From TrEMBL:
<dbReference type="Pfam" id="PF02153">
    <property type="entry name" value="PDH_N"/>
</dbReference>
<dbReference type="InterPro" id="IPR050812">
    <property type="entry name" value="Preph/Arog_dehydrog"/>
</dbReference>
<dbReference type="InterPro" id="IPR046826">
    <property type="entry name" value="PDH_N"/>
</dbReference>
<keyword id="KW-0057">Aromatic amino acid biosynthesis</keyword>
<protein>
    <recommendedName>
        <fullName>Prephenate dehydrogenase</fullName>
        <ecNumber>1.3.1.12</ecNumber>
    </recommendedName>
</protein>
<keyword id="KW-0520">NAD</keyword>
<dbReference type="Pfam" id="PF20463">
    <property type="entry name" value="PDH_C"/>
</dbReference>
<dbReference type="GO" id="GO:0008977">
    <property type="term" value="F:prephenate dehydrogenase (NAD+) activity"/>
</dbReference>
<dbReference type="InterPro" id="IPR045865">
    <property type="entry name" value="ACT-like_dom_sf"/>
</dbReference>
<keyword id="KW-0028">Amino-acid biosynthesis</keyword>
<dbReference type="InterPro" id="IPR036291">
    <property type="entry name" value="NAD(P)-bd_dom_sf"/>
</dbReference>
<dbReference type="InterPro" id="IPR002912">
    <property type="entry name" value="ACT_dom"/>
</dbReference>
<feature type="domain" description="ACT">
    <location>
        <begin position="304"/>
        <end position="376"/>
    </location>
</feature>
<keyword id="KW-0560">Oxidoreductase</keyword>
<dbReference type="InterPro" id="IPR046825">
    <property type="entry name" value="PDH_C"/>
</dbReference>
<keyword id="KW-0827">Tyrosine biosynthesis</keyword>
<dbReference type="GO" id="GO:0006571">
    <property type="term" value="P:tyrosine biosynthetic process"/>
</dbReference>
Length: 376
């Protein structure tokens, strides 16, 4: 079997079975297929399973298939413990992992199930999309992203290595934590952000349509994940309710303070209101500067060029190609589209040392560069 160029210890050689072939299960399956693994798929929805097989992600599992060496449960969090326990019983030699966004409740249930839980190691790839389902799967979804490995006290070292190798084979960066630390961490970086984004987007239901027609990048940045699947996120949030509630309490205090000061200000009192606004924005600046940049490095400043991109097929590709020809590396990109306009606005982030070259080369090739400046 062709491997991603990694390790001798904990190498999976036999077939991999993926249970739950939605966004994450199918992305893993496609990535493993591309590396030459033999992949089997199972999902309670026959339509989903057929779609995943049609996408070339593997073969539908049946009892005549060879015994898997690794089983990956990629089902909603509230059914993962049961699926892991069943897999440990059905496949007595297999290592079993799950990829659910919550870990403590699943680990507790598996360890108390009476099954052979030393072959179980939890895990969680920190990559995804706001859209569920196999149709949105991507074999490169995990590339460069953290993948948390969450052994229980009973997990064997071999099982841990196999799950680490899975992450590495898919281009992810494994990092190990216990279930409690994992759940607290993801409450901060994933679960509370999801709820805040949803709450913010829900406020738009009461906004007049002329307000929505003015929506720009700020609103899009803060509400992208509000498109997420309510069923999946109900199970995620319910599975990590304690740590999430603790952070929401702090947020509630901050909000109550801000509301009180703003109301005092609007009623004519000057005391403390301006200070609280400045404190909120400055604390936000400090918080956002703690988010690591690409590949987990400390965040650094990029230069940003804003370029008008004609709304025609192939134009964005041409922009990438022509920046590449000028030997300018794109570090990040955002696109803004205004409804009914013939142009989109691409904000391309690049190394500040390349800014002059990029501007000159783009203008030489007929692009309209709107502005050049600093970005984070
Ligand atoms: N979406 C993300 O961004 C993301 C990222 C990392 C981890 N995860 C975790 O990965 C898991 C899958 O999420 P997803 O985004 O792929 O969801 P999804 O809705 O796209 O896919 C879930 C799949 O599980 C199947 N399923 C439902 N009940 C099942 C059961 N009892 N047994 C087996 N399969 C069952 C569904 O038919 C569906 O195909 C979840 O536990 C989620 O917390 C999600
Ligand atoms: O990129 C997104 O859309 C995601 O929401 C991915 C995201 C996250 O919060 O980072 C969502 C849930 C997962 O458990 C892991 C990753």
């Amino acid at each position: 079997m062709q491997r991603g160029g990694f390790v001798n210890q904990g190498d999976v050689k036999g077939p991999v079975l993926i249970i739950g072939t939605g966004l994450i299960g199918t992305s893993i399956a496609l990535g493993l297929r591309a590396l030459g693994f033999s992949v089997y798929l199972d999902d309670p929805s026959p339509t989903t399973l057929a779609l995943t097989v049609d996408m070339g992600a593997g073969l539908a599992w049946d009892s005549s298939a060879p015994m898997p060496e690794l089983v990956i449960v990629a089902a909603p969090p509230d059914v993962c413990a049961q699926q892991v326990t069943d897999a440990l019983q059905r496949f007595p030699d297999a290592i079993v992992t799950d990829v659910a966004s919550v870990k403590q409740a699943i680990a507790d249930d598996v360890c108390q199930s009476g099954s052979d839980s030393k072959r179980y190691v939890g895990s969680h790839p920190m990559a995804g999309r706001a859209r569920s389902g196999a149709a949105f799967a991507d074999k490169d979804l995990f590339y460069g992203r953290p993948w948390v490995i969450v052994p229980t006290e009973q997990s064997t070292q071999e099982a841990v290595m196999i799950v680490r190798n899975l992450a590495i084979d898919l281009g992810a960066v494994p990092t190990q934590m216990d279930a409690h630390d994992h759940d607290t961490a993801v409450a901060y970086v994933s679960h509370v952000p999801q709820l805040v984004s949803s709450l913010l987007a829900a406020r738009l239901l009461g906004a007049p349509s002329h307000a929505l027609s003015l929506a720009g990048q700020g609103l899009r940045d803060t509400t992208r994940i509000a498109q997420s699947d309510p069923r999946l996120w109900t199970a995620i949030v319910a599975g990590n309710a304690g740590p999430i509630a603790a952070i929401l309490h702090d947020l509630e205090d901050d909000l109550a303070d801000a509301v009180e000061r703003l109301e005092q200000y609007s009623q004519g009192s000057q005391v403390g209101a301006i200070g609280v606004i400045s404190d909120i924005v400055a604390a936000g600046n400090r918080g956002v500067s703690r988010i690591p940049g690409k590949h987990g490095q400390a965040q650094r400043s990029w230069a940003e060029i804003e370029v008008l991109v004609p709304d025609r097929p192939g134009e964005l590709g041409r922009l990438f190609t022509e920046l590449g020809q000028a030997e300018v590396n794109i570090e990040d990109l955002t696109l803004e589209h205004a409804a009914g306009k013939k142009y989109g606005l691409a904000r391309v982030q690049i190394d500040p040392a390349s800014i002059l070259t990029a501007t000159e080369e783009l203008e030489k090739r007929g692009w309209r560069v709107i502005s050049v400046g600093e970005s984070k």
